[in-house]
Design goal:
The complex is a heterodimer. A seven-stranded parallel beta sheet of chain A has the order 6-5-4-3-2-1-7. Chain A has one domain: TIM Barrel (Alpha-Beta Barrel), CATH 3.20.20. Chain A contains seven helices and seven strands. The longest helix of chain A has 19 residues. Chain A is α/β, with parallel strands linked by helices. In chain A, helix 1 packs parallel to helix 2 and helix 3 packs parallel to helix 5. Chain B is of the alpha/beta class. Chain B has one domain: Alpha-Beta Barrel (TIM Barrel). In chain B, strands 1, 2, 3, 4, 5, 8, 9, 12, 13, 14, 15, 16, 17 and 18 form a 14-stranded mixed beta sheet that branches. Chain B has a two-stranded antiparallel sheet with strand order 6-7. In chain B, strand 3, helix 1 and strand 4 form a beta-alpha-beta unit. The chains are: A alpha/beta, B alpha/beta. At the A-B interface, helix 3 and helix 5 of A face strand 7 and helix 5 of B.
Chain lengths: 233, 335
């Protein structure tokens, strides 16, 4: 397959299994919105004949029951060059076998981007030990990569040291928190975009496209979540 | 062997080695004339050395090892002859501790894979499974050569220190048994690729001041602890051999206890040639379901359910009659 020139960043659920106080998507354990398959299918179908990469994010995509339906549909188009799953890693061990099976069956490249931050390390026991074991289990698969995205507060250098202690530094990308989402108005920098693909766009959980405007999508997700909670109440 | 086995609910079949479907086949080889069970398990002892000195080891009378080339040539000859005689083989790789000599282990499984022998089990203490050989961990070599059906790791007790005592591990040994963290890493590796990893535990009463797993409550606790690190198959075995009474734990009373315990739902009994199996469903506190199989040996006339291969000698059973001795036929290959 030729190299993709376009990446779709799709928020498939705003539900999460943890409540990070700095979440840029306002996700959490009380949220309740999932993307429908028809919405997902339309986003994928609208790419026409283009080769694309798919980034599934949330919320926590690995607690979303239709995640594998979405992945298999995208791969079945024959135009999906890469599947990227942005996860907090808590459910990764339970899902790894299935992700690896899909990767081996179709040959599609997979990147698993695992979030690391002080909150996850506090509430989830042995997070880095688990990740180190899962990285060890998959490191011989040339096109199945697990990498870490670490978000730090100003004084969180200790996280880098812990990551190093588990031998995970080489696959870690370390950043400071950003001043949007729940951190809007904080003394952290605003959104910085680091991108390695020509064309990309982001989608909210209801399928609305926001181009490359991360902040606008974030605030829209907040509004959707509040509306959903009000309806529920 | 008399055993109790906990396995994941989706593995309801009676192993790869299905007692209800086997049959006997006449085998004549050398001076041996007898019957063997089909498919026949071939225990291949890769190496006799071990970091432990378990009092219950059924292979403790073997000493020394033939050199690697001789091992591989003799194994190839023996297996080829058996296949020519129409014997269907499944291999159990064992020792000693097979992962103490990784090149021998990897070359042996590659050879058996090439000869078309069905892979069954690697029986190990697991100590070398995470070691790297030719750019990949040993466990990956097992997967590459088809040993996905199960890897059986001997663990006598969840406490590392007590486990070492029960397995006769000398304190001065440079090779320690697995820690719980290491076992968990192996489990995660196996689970990623669909390899059934199981623990194999001998029921031990009292030994050198320590108690092994000996009650149904301890069995259930052990299964629960293994689940926490991603191991869902646990086998518990009655000791084979004659030992002081307080070392032994007869398994029949435990099986009878299972039969009366309401947590175990009886499913069926399978009558096999060498053993009968009573099957139950057990649901634990987290609603995880297991199939529990209670194996009891049956008395059979002299037939062999397994062959063994040690140091160039093929035998019926572990200590049974010699079928073939490569060294006698090829004395110049030894040195």
């Amino acid at each position: 397959m030729d190299k993709a020139t376009r990446r779709l960043y799709i928020n498939v659920t705003d539900r999460c299994n943890t409540n990070c106080p700095f979440c840029c998507m306002y996700s959490g354990t009380d949220n309740r919105l999932d993307m429908t398959f028809d919405t997902f299918k339309k986003i994928v179908d609208d790419t026409g004949s283009e080769i694309f990469e798919l980034q599934l994010e949330g919320g926590e995509p690995l607690i979303f029951p239709k995640i594998y339906l979405f992945i298999e549909y995208a791969i079945a188009t024959g135009r999906c060059a890469k599947v990227i799953v942005l996860t907090n890693g808590i459910e990764l061990e339970k899902n790894l076998r299935r992700l690896v099976q899909i990767h081996q069956w179709y040959g599609t490249e997979f990147h698993i981007k695992v979030s690391v931050n002080y909150h996850l390390l506090k509430v989830h026991d042995n997070h880095l030990k688990t990740l180190a074991d899962l990285v060890f289990a998959t490191e011989l698969l040339p096109k199945f990569n697990i990498e870490l995205n670490t978000r730090k507060r100003h004084n969180d250098q200790w996280i880098d040291a812990e990551i190093d202690a588990f031998g995970l530094s080489e696959i870690n990308h370390s950043f400071e928190l950003q001043s949007y989402g729940r951190m809007t108005g904080s003394n952290y920098d605003g959104v910085k975009i680091v991108q390695n693909i020509d064309s990309w766009e982001i989608y909210a959980v209801d399928g609305k496209c926001f181009g490359i405007d991360l902040v606008a999508r974030s605030e829209y997700e907040k509004k959707l979540a509040e509306e959903a909670n009000n309806e529920h109440d | 062997m008399n055993t109790i086995k906990f396995a994941p609910y989706n593995e309801f079949v009676t192993e790869q080695h299905q007692v209800e479907r086997g049959y006997l086949k006449r085998l004549e080889m050398g001076d041996f004339k007898g019957k063997v069970y089909q498919p026949c398990n071939l225990d291949v002892l890769v190496i006799n050395a071990c970091q432990n000195h378990c009092f219950f080891c059924i292979k403790k009378n073997y000493f020394g090892d033939v050199i690697e080339d001789t091992l591989l040539k003799s194994l190839e000859t023996a297996v080829t002859r058996l296949i020519e005689k129409g014997i269907t083989l499944e291999a159990t790789i064992t020792g000693g501790e097979p992962t103490l000599r990784v090149p021998r282990l990897v070359k042996t499984i590659q050879l058996l894979h090439r000869l078309g022998v069905k892979e069954r089990t690697v029986s190990t203490t697991g100590v070398g499974l995470l070691d790297e050989y030719e750019g990949r961990p040993v466990i990956q070599h097992l997967i590459d050569n088809g040993y996905t059906h199960n890897v059986s790791i001997s663990v006598m007790h969840p406490d590392h220190a007590i486990n070492n005592v029960l397995m006769g591990h000398p304190q001065e040994s440079t090779v320690d048994n697995l820690t719980r963290d290491q076992l968990q890493r192996i489990a995660r590796y196996c689970n990623t690729y669909g390899v059934e990893l199981r623990t194999s535990t001998n029921l031990i009463g009292s030994y050198r001041g320590y108690r092994g797993i000996s009650t149904l409550g301890e069995i259930i606790d052990f299964v629960s602890q293994q689940k926490q690190i991603g191991i869902y198959s646990c086998l518990f075995r009655e000791l084979v051999g004659k030992f002081p009474g307080n070392w032994m734990v007869p398994i029949k009373p435990l099986q009878d206890e299972i039969a009366k315990d309401k947590r175990f739902e009886y499913v069926k009994t399978i009558e096999g040639m060498f053993y009968d199996i009573k099957m139950y469903i057990y649901t634990d506190a987290d609603c995880k379901q297991y199939v529990v199989k209670c194996y009891q040996d049956t008395i059979v006339p002299v037939t062999y359910s397994r062959l063994s291969f040690v140091n160039g000698i093929l035998r019926a059973g572990f200590d049974g009659p010699e079928l073939y001795n490569y060294i006698k036929e090829n004395p110049n290959d030894l040195f």
